[in-house]
């Protein structure tokens, strides 16, 4: 990409570029205009950022009068302000403008690049600064979170989010592992480690005793991770633990988390709080790590052939035990079926694409499985927003994309020159091999907007072309950088292997079968980039051992206002949108009308289809929509969700063009069988994936579930069904009696002229436990019936029947007396039972539960009316709404107007896109609650991200 792009200067032999180079990069303009600073091209506005916990109304964060471009969404501004602005809130040192944040980072990169000779002249350095500034300002790409946290501050300049550790078979090494993990967690990142060097519990120690085995040491590391909260945040540490399939303790490792899930069920049934983040979940072990099994081709062939497989000792490689390969493979699938762990990592595939085998094998990954490289190493990430390169005519701006990759990969490379690392070993390895992880977000939105189904040959061809072009350009730029500041230190001993992997990538590009103009243009340009890169690299070497990964892009995806994260499809067709001032709206994803236009639908039909989606949450039977176009709008959740193999095939399409791997969980329905999971695991190997994790809906106890959810139990083999039934029979409900002295209150009431008294007694700290009704003289038939009814309800409550169950059964029950009441919160009652349980709901149930049942106080109803009136007023004032809650629209696409079918007030119970989807579909999403703001998170790769505050469930 010569011309006005970046071009390499003279070749240099230095490895680290510690002083100014004679040559340097020439930097041409891609996005900016000469003589105009990027900040001067946009309109800026001041906003107040106030973050609250919707459950109790408490304020989590408040900073007023912050400065952002007018086109940045409320959500993006809120997350950047709370997560990335540095300085104590309320002090002059606190950052208050996006300009300050971008300048702090970009100017650090420019200075480091100039000092180390990356640029041919100061003018080139200035263009580089302006180009990065423009791209960050316009949400074209983002660095990973540690860059925003640390670069340009007084803190250590840690730029990496992904770490891999190592541990040997010695107590010193094991204790070092504990310490190094703690340091990484303290810095807000996660790490992975392979424990296969540790002797099994079936091997002897030199002293004559038996070794503890890796699973026992996992227990100590898990406790440490649970104690150290990442980066001082409220989420727990993120970690990956891996064991090779030929380790003698592999069967114990596979069953570890499944057994703990049985324990969670038992404790839950005994009345303990075992929800994710519950007060009693800490008593369960191994919950702070993702577990993965490293399977070899030898093992997978044994599974395929139905043969045996040897488990080998760690000290001398002798066979300790011979097992049935298919039985172990099924045990892995069964454990995944029960609790989503372990996942699989395909060892021989990973190492076949390894550029540095002479240095050492790849044995482990980071917590999300996208970074796979040498032990004791790290990787810094950055991701491009693909939708920014989609033209209004449906074309993909191939040349601009390639030049943008050049700019971003150059910045990422410069960061290693000044970066700090949590341990000396990690710093040494990373500086010697300079692993980078460029990736992308918004693939799902790009495909939908282009009118391509996610699960289609056309969609996969575009995804493969983009991935190949991105990595090809990154490696070509790396080869050019090697000509300026030298190849990475470990290149010389790995030159042959590195070149072999580059040829494998290029050959894989030749296997792409493009469909359509866009895919053809991408594959053609990618082929050229690979050819040029290999030619330059053969001469210069490469500056970086690794170039690309596909990360979750959780928080940074929200920063870029992406509809979809990483390689994921759209979550659903409706989404939750925050407004300035705390309001919210339900909108149809803006990729939907764009997709309809690209498919050739006239504007009238577009509006009708969008209105249908707004009302129903899906495209089924949408007016005028052709059934053959339904697949374009398939999502991760909803009436038309993408099949599990659709996700696997997409991963397989892009994997040959990614240096590392892909952070993605293949979601499976609750009805999926163990055989289904076995097939997914096997197909992942056959299709050449490096890693694969599945999640069966509702398989974990520690997930918040909707009481309205009534899915059928998933099928499993008959023997296993009997096993589960035996467990259910073992656990009986336990009656929790009230103390002798208990708080209570009595309410007098009148329903249709009939008078009565309700006395409700509660546990000191745990809700309603007893009720009594009096409506007639003592000894009368009615008094006896009421006493018996009260006793029955009270005993049920004490045995754990939820109050909301009674409320749902007895409210709206109709019989005389009925009519007016004297209760200002319940003006009309269909019967005495209807009144009694509405009153109990108001007194003892939380607002969210009552809202689902439609029970509100008079004050709450009045507030709802006011909110609806305000929403209607906002819908009329179109200009005011656009100014207060702007959303950037792709080029050539008009914004939806408030009050149109695309937008309407969000349900009162929804506080995120996931909760909105639940409200629209009437089904529960199996996702954790955010510890910070209480909303349901949404999937992002193999973890979750909160749309409200940007917190993640583990991956930075």
From TrEMBL:
UniProt name for this protein: Vitamin B12-dependent ribonucleotide reductase
UniProt cross-references to Gene3D superfamilies, sorted A to Z: 3.20.70.20
Residue ranges of every copy of the Ribonucleotide reductase large subunit C-terminal domain listed in the record: 160-695
Recorded catalytic activity of this chain's protein: a 2'-deoxyribonucleoside 5'-diphosphate + [thioredoxin]-disulfide + H2O = a ribonucleoside 5'-diphosphate + [thioredoxin]-dithiol
Entry's family note: Belongs to the ribonucleoside diphosphate reductase class-2 family.
Cofactor names: adenosylcob(III)alamin
Ribonucleotide reductase class II vitamin B12-dependent N-terminal domain span: 49-139
MF term (GO), any: cobalamin binding
Top EC group: oxidoreductase
Main function: Catalyzes the reduction of ribonucleotides to deoxyribonucleotides. May function to provide a pool of deoxyribonucleotide precursors for DNA repair during oxygen limitation and/or for immediate growth after restoration of oxygen.
Alphabetized Pfam families for the sequence: Ribonuc_red_2_N, Ribonuc_red_lgC, TSCPD
Positions of the TSCPD domain: 739-842
Keywords noted in UniProt: Cobalamin, Cobalt, Disulfide bond, DNA synthesis, Nucleotide-binding, Oxidoreductase
GO biological process: DNA biosynthetic process
Its EC number(s): 1.17.4.1
């Amino acid at each position: 990409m010569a011309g006005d792009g970046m071009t390499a200067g003279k070749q240099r032999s230095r490895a680290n570029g510690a002083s100014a180079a004679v040559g340097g990069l020439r930097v041409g303009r891609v996005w900016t205009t000469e003589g105009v600073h990027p900040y001067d091209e946009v309109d800026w506005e001041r906003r107040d950022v106030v973050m609250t916990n919707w459950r109790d109304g408490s304020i989590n964060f408040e900073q007023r009068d912050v400065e952002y471009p007018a086109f940045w969404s409320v959500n993006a501004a809120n997350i950047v302000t709370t997560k990335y602005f540095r300085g104590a809130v309320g002090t002059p040192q606190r950052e208050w403008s996006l300009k300050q944040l971008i300048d702090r980072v970009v100017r650090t990169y420019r200075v480091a690049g100039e000092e180390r000779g990356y640029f041919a002249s100061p003018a080139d350095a200035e263009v580089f600064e302006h180009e990065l500034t423009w791209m960050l300002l316009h949400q074209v790409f983002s660095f990973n979170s540690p860059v925003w946290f640390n670069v340009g501050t007084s803190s250590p300049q840690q730029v990496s989010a992904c770490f891999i550790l190592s541990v040997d078979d010695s107590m010193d090494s094991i204790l070092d592992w504990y310490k190094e993990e703690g340091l990484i967690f303290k810095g807000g990142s996660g790490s992975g480690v392979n424990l296969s060097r540790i002797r099994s519990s079936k091997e002897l120690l030199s002293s004559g005793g038996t070794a503890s085995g890796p699973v026992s040491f996992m227990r100590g590391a898990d406790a440490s991770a649970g104690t150290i909260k990442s980066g001082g945040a409220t989420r727990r540490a993120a970690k990956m633990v891996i064991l090779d399939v030929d380790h003698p303790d592999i069967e114990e490792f596979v069953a570890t988390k499944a057994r703990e899930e049985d324990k969670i069920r038992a404790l839950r049934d005994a009345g303990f709080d075992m929800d994710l983040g519950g007060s009693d979940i800490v008593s369960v072990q191994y919950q702070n790590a993702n577990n993965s099994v490293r399977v070899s081709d030898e093992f997978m062939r044994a599974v395929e052939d139905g043969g045996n497989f040897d488990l080998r000792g760690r000290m001398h490689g002798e066979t300790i035990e011979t097992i049935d390969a298919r039985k172990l493979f099924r045990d892995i699938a069964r454990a995944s079926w029960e609790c989503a762990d372990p996942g699989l990592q395909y060892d021989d595939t990973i190492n076949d694409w390894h550029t540095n085998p002479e240095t050492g094998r790849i044995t482990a990954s980071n917590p999300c499985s996208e970074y796979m490289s040498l032990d004791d190493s790290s990787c810094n990430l950055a991701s491009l927003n693909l939708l920014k390169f989609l033209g209004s005519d449906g074309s993909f701006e191939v040349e601009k994309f390639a030049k943008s990759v050049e700019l971003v990969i150059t910045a990422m490379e410069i960061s290693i020159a000044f970066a700090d690392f949590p341990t000396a070993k990690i710093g040494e390895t990373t500086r010697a091999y300079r692993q980078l992880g460029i990736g992308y977000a918004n693939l799902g939105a790009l495909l939908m907007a282009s009118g391509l189904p996610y699960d289609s040959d056309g969609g996969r061809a575009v995804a493969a072309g983009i991935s190949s072009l991105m990595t090809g350009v990154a490696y070509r730029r790396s080869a050019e950088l090697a000509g300026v500041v030298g190849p990475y230190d470990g290149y010389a001993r790995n030159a042959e292997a590195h070149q072999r992997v580059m040829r494998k990538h290029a050959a894989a590009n030749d296997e792409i079968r493009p469909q359509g103009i866009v895919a053809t243009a991408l594959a053609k340009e990618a082929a050229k980039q690979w050819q040029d890169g290999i030619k330059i690299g053969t001469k210069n070497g490469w500056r970086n051992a690794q170039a690309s990964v596909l990360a979750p892009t959780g928080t940074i995806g929200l920063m870029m206002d992406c509809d979809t994260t990483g390689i994921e499809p759209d979550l659903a067709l409706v989404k939750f949108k925050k407004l300035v001032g705390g309001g919210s709206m339900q909108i149809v994803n803006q990729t939907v009308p764009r997709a309809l236009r690209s498919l050739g639908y006239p504007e009238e039909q577009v509006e009708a289809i969008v209105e249908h989606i707004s009302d129903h949450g899906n495209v089924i039977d949408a007016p005028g929509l052709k059934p053959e176009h339904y697949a374009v709008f398939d999502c991760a959740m909803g009436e038309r969700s993408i099949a599990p193999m659709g996700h696997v095939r997409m991963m397989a399409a892009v994997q040959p063009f990614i240096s590392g791997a892909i952070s993605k969980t293949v979601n499976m329905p609750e009805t999926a069988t163990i055989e289904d999971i076995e097939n997914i695991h096997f197909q992942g190997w056959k299709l050449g994936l490096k890693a694969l994790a599945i999640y069966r809906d509702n398989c974990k106890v520690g997930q918040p579930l909707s009481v309205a959810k009534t899915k059928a139990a998933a099928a499993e083999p008959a023997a296993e069904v009997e096993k589960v039934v035996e467990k259910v029979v073992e656990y009986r409900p336990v009656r929790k009696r009230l103390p002798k002295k208990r708080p209570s209150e009595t309410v007098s009431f009148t329903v249709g002229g009939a008078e009565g008294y309700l006395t409700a007694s509660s546990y000191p700290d745990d809700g309603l436990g007893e009720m009594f009704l009096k409506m007639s003289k003592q000894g009368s038939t009615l008094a006896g019936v009421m006493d018996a009814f009260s006793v029955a309800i009270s005993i049920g409550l004490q045995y754990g029947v939820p109050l909301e169950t009674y409320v749902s059964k007895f409210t709206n029950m109709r019989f005389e007396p009925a009519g007016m009441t004297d209760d200002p919160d319940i003006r009309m009652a269909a019967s005495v039972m209807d009144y009694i349980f509405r009153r109990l709901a108001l007194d003892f149930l939380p607002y969210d539960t009552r809202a689902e049942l439609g029970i509100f106080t008079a004050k709450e109803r009045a507030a709802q009316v006011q909110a609806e009136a305000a929403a209607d007023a906002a819908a009329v004032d179109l200009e005011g709404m656009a100014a207060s809650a702007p959303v950037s629209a792709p080029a050539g696409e008009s914004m939806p107007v408030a009050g149109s079918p695309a937008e309407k007030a969000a349900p009162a119970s929804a506080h995120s896109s996931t909760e909105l989807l639940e409200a629209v579909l009437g089904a529960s999403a199996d996702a954790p609650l955010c510890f910070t703001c209480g909303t349901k998170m949404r999937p992002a790769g193999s973890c979750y991200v909160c749309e409200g505050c940007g917190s993640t469930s583990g991956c930075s």
